Amino acid sequence: MQEILEFWMNEYGGAKSGSTSKQAFYELTKGVMNEFKGIYIHADLVHFVAEWCSVKYAFYVKDIMDSIDKKVHEKLDEEELEDTVENAKPLFEEEVGKMCEKQLEHEREIYYGYRDSPYELDQWEQEDLKREFREYELAKIAFEAAEKKLKVWGRFVQKYCE
Questions:
Q1: What average pLDDT does range 67-93 have in this prediction?
Q2: Where is the secretion signal located (predicted)?
Q3: pTM of this prediction?
Q4: Cα separation, 4 vs 34, whole angstroms
């Protein structure tokens, strides 16, 4: 335990109370209920202290920390998924608009006689059109999958929070 504390102090220094740097130990005495008053250790040191106490205790602490970490990551993933779906729809519509503009431009060229037929595309234009169509299809599939995930996670989160 002493080695861990020495390493921590060397790494982060002896931080004073109220400073923004990392502290190895926190002492809560003012402004909290009596049941929460006491000395707390930094979250990065929890598993070291648990190992120091006993191996059995370390396993229990590991399970608790993993469950807390899992809940935090689930919440962050849910928020990220919502952001992704909300931001994906305008971007998807913008890409579809660009593709429509290109198609209209291409049809105008045919209509005004710049090209005699739609089949007179050179090799580069054909590859571009194929690539854009594949991107459009993939974006459409990804958007539908994101909407499905949001619906599923929405139900899960509602049940979990109740």
A1: 74
A2: none
A3: 0.34
A4: 29
